[in-house]
Amino acid sequence: MYPTLSIGPLAIPTAPLTIIIGLWLLLDVIERAARQRHLDSKLTYNLAVTALAAGFIGARLAFVALHWSAYRENLWGMVWPLTSGYEEWAGVVVGIFAALLVARRHQLPLWSTLDALAPGLWVGFMAISLADFLGGPGYGKPTNVLWGIELFSLRRHPVQVYELLAGVVALWLWRRLARQNQPAGILFLGSAAAYSALRLFVDAYRDNAPVTGEGYHITQLMAFAVMLGCLFFITRLPQAPTDDPHADSV
Prior knowledge:
With 250 residues, the chain is mainly alpha-helical. The protein has one domain (11-236). The chain is 61% helix and 6% strand. It contains eight helices and four strands. It has helices spanning 14-36, 41-66, 68-71, 88-105, 110-135, 159-178, 186-202, 218-236, and strands at 4-7, 10-13, 149-151, 154-156. Strands 1-2 form a two-stranded antiparallel sheet. A two-stranded antiparallel sheet has the order 3-4. A hairpin with a 2-residue loop joins strand 1 and strand 2 (10-13). Helix 5 (110-135) packs parallel to helix 7. The chain starts with a strand and ends in a 14-residue tail after the last helix. The model is unreliable at 243-247 (pLDDT under 50).
């Protein structure tokens, strides 16, 4: 792990730096995707900023709710420090919901807008995974595999790298689908289903995952629900491709 980057007398935390760079790349990718999908790139960019802000708050509140016993006696800890302590899946759900509200207000096409947001979503997840790997807040189960990493005096699965590769696969699939004349929504739903399926598998190797009272990984449950939802909506999309960006307005 490399929690800090030393530049002369400066020691820069790598996790926040990675997130900042990831946010810049995320917004740039979304703006490019919006132009590719024949959407208003400026409006889509602003929508993404709103979704990020809402997702940030949602992810933090979800983490606090899941770990309420740690915050009960320290309410100030809910808002500071903000360098760690987020539930990414909750942030995604809240962020997408906020994006849909903005899209509805401006009469943006639903599925085409989600298609444009999707690559930014995978870039954001990859940035989070890389930040976790560098900073070390997430860690895998003990293992003897050759590619394991030493952490807390044990050889562990590099689960953050697994998550990053899941994001790479989702982004690759999005780009592959984008080269084809697919119906609006397929890019988002297809890549989201792939990412969720991979996370369903990958999170089995995480050692500090939040669990239910029965011992089920909450992240895996959410990934399974998202995967099923994406597959369901894929079967409900029109089969004929469309080039009309307003054909699926919210």
